[in-house]
Every structure is written in C-alpha cells, then in structure tokens.
Amino acid sequence: MKDLKSRIKEKIHQRELKISSYSTENEEIIVEGILIDNRLINTFHLSGGQRPAATVHHLIVRILVDKRLIIRQVETEMPETPHDECPETMESLQKLIGMKIGRGFTLKVKNKFGKGEGCSHLGSLIIAMAPAAIQGFWTNVSSKPLPADLKFKMKLLLADNCWVWRSNGPALKQLTR
Fold first, then answer.
1. pLDDT tens over the chain, length 177 residues
2. 22, 34 in Cβ contact below 8 A?
3. What is the Cα gyration radius of the chain?
C-alpha cells in the first residue's frame, strides 16, 4: 500500500488555528483563538449554484482566565462567516463565564454548544483553546519563582493528563519532591 504522503494530489481546504496567550496587569491571562477555514477550490452550493474559492470562516475568541483557570470574560468576533445568521451565535459563548478549564471541560463545552445551541466551529475553537490556556497560565506563573503550594496544585492539574504526567511516572514523582 502506498504511503499517504505520496497519494496527495491537490489541497482543497485549509484550517488554521492560532492560539496565543497574553499576560495582563495582574495574574490573569487573556487567551486569543483564531480559526480560519479557507476553501481552496470552487465548489457547488446545496442550492446548485457555484461558489468561488474563499475564506469560509474567520472567527476570533478571547477569554480572560483567572489564576484558578476560571473563565471570567469572553469576547467574540466573526469577520467572515458562510451564513448571515452565524453571528447570532456569538452571545452563546457568554455561557463559558464561570467555567473552569480542566478535567471535563471539553464535555461541558460540547453539551453547552451542541444540538443547535451554538456554533460548532466556535465550540471547536474553544476546545482547542483550553490546553493552550493551561500552557499560557503555566508560562505566566513560571515567569517568577514558584510558590511552594503551586507545585501541589500543578500536580493535581497534571496527574494522568498524559503519558509523561501519569500517576506512577517519573515526571509527577519529581514534581512532588
């Protein structure tokens, strides 16, 4: 069987996700996520008409995350959408306020924004932003000497999150020393 790379012909679609974290004047961070979907070839609409290659989605979400990883504020922009009704879903992201980023976050987001309750693309962006928020939080906190109680909190956050941070692994044991 041929390898997948050798079977590639023409690129037809590209999704870009850009997620950045920013420090603020206090211990909070702002996480900005940008999702851009580009249709790279002409296609046919469900109505039968032809559509030219174009940007289909350009979505921007900013969340303010406190030192406990709780979302305190949400801003949404939709510079480019495929339907006029899409921006009506922006307000639905206000349901994120008060949610804690951590175990179970993805399922909570899917439950809040699935089944016609919001934009699936905004939901996908928020889900992708969560691990980046944790990385941004850690980068912000570790820019100064770490307080002793933070190691315990990080152990709780990281335990069994991935192979490296498994309960019986060397990385987590080293953190508790």
1. 889 999 999 999 999 999 999 999 988 999 999 999 999 999 998 899 999 999 999 999 999 999 999 999 999 999 999 999 999 999 999 999 999 999 899 999 998 887 778 899 999 999 999 999 999 998 998 888 877 777 677 777 778 878 888 888 888 777 766
2. no
3. 20
Q: How far is CA 15 from CA 9, 25, 61, 82, in A?
A: 18, 33, 16, 15
CB 159 within 8 Å of CB 149:
no
Supply 119's token pair: 């934009």
> What does the block give as tokens for 135?
């990385």
Which H helix or E strand runs over 33? Answer: strand 29-39
Cα–Cα distance measured from residue 140 to residue 150, given in angstroms and rounded to the nearest whole number: 13
Q: Which two tokens stand for residue 149?
A: 């109680």
